[in-house]
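Hi Y.,

Following your request, here is the sequence exactly as I used it, all 77 residues.
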Amino acid sequence: MEKLLDILRELHPETDFETETRLVDGGILASFDVVMLITRIEEEFGVVIPAKEIVPKNFNSAAALFALITRIGEQDD
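Below is the corresponding structure, written out as tokens. Let me know if you'd prefer a different format.
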């Protein structure tokens, strides 16, 4: 989770990603941010995020993102 938080903080250091639950719905992460985030996650965690998983509920919080990464990682095993 800490690696993910570091990636998020690089995008928006002013945001408290440990408590924020409306990253997409609240406009904190714009579409370009999501694209950058997906690229970094895929590089850092060695997972490929399917297009069907690129929905706001998976990107609205660090916890939701981490759950997505974990779920995808388990499917690859």
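The chain has one domain: 2-7+21-76.

Thanks again,
Q.
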